[in-house]
Structure formats: structure tokens, C-alpha cells
Amino acid sequence: MFNLALLIDNHDEDNDQNKKVILKSKLAKKVIARNNGKDAINYLTTNPDIPDIIFLDINMPIVDGCVFIHEFESLPEIIKDLSKIYILSSTKNDMYLQKLVEGNEIEGVVSKPLTPEICEGIKQ
Prior knowledge:
With 124 residues, the chain is an alpha/beta fold. 43% of the residues lie in helices and 25% in strands. It has six helices and five strands. Helix 2 runs parallel beside helix 3 (65-72). The longest helix has 13 residues, at 12-24.
């Protein structure tokens, strides 16, 4: 079980649902949500609690997931080493997402909303 999960999605309903699934499936003890990449980067750079796992939506206002990934790469090594990123997507077979995964430190693409089965797969 991870200590902390960070959800980055501009839809509060999705964050609420995903948080419930993460906690119920015991994927993480605590879940924090941010509504855009800018708020998430700010959280990562100002908070001592480093998330073990990050679920990132790509299409968001202010700072989207692609910009977040770019900015994440410039964060201190300890944050990058301890945080695994999964892209949340409603279209898992998107070629663009696959290229994004291949070119960056992304663990994979998971369908949204999260399900207990997806969480179980991540735990293994």
C-alpha cells in the first residue's frame, strides 16, 4: 500500500470517485487532489509529503498534463524517484498518449474512472 496518492484532474466528480476507489481498494492510505498541473507542481514543490503515485489527466485548463510532465522533469530527483506517474485517460489506445509514455518517465496509461481492478493491477 502506498502512503500518498495525488490525483490531478480538473473534474471534481472524477477526483471524488477516484479517491473513493483508491482508498477502498487500499492502493493508498491518503489521497490529495489538485485541479490542474500548476496547483500540482506547487504542491510538489512546497509540501514535504511526496506522493508515491500520481494519477494525471492530460486535458485540463491552466496547466495541462503535458506541461505538468515537462515541469515535473525539472523537480528535485527525490520527488521524481519516489513518484510514479500514471496517465488517466478515457481513451487508452490513443497513439499520442503512447508516445508520451515512451518519451517520459510514465508508468503507463489507465482508464478513467479508476476501478478496483485497475488499482489491484497497479499494486502488483
